[in-house]
Amino acid sequence: MSNDIVFVNGHVLTGHRTPSDATGVAIHQGRIASVGSDAEARAWAGPGTPVIDLNGRSIAPAFNDAHCHIMSVGFSAKEIDARTPPNRRIQDIVERVAERASTTETGRWIIARGYDQARLEDQRHPTREDLDPVSPSHPVILVRACGHISVGNSRALELAGIDANTRDPEGGTIDRGEDGRPTGVLREEANRMLRRVIPAPSVDEIREALVLAGQEYYSRGVTSAAEAGIRTPDEMAAYTTLRNEGALPLRSYLMMMIDERLEPLRELGLRTGFGDEVLRIGPAKIFLDGSIGGRTARMSQPYEGEDDNLGLWMQDPQVMKDKLKAAHHAGFQCCAHAIGDAAIDLLLSAFEEALAEAPRDDHRHRIEHSSILRPDLLDRIQRIGAIPIPGTSFLHAFQKAYVANLGMDRIRYAYAMREFLNRGIVAAASTDAPVVSTSAMIGIQTMMTRLSEEGEELYAEEKITLEEAIHAYTWAGAYASFEENLKGTLEPGKVGDVAVLEGDLRDVPPEAMSTVNVDLTVMNGDVVYQRGDN
Question: At 55, which CATH number?
Answer without folding.
Answer: 2.30.40.10
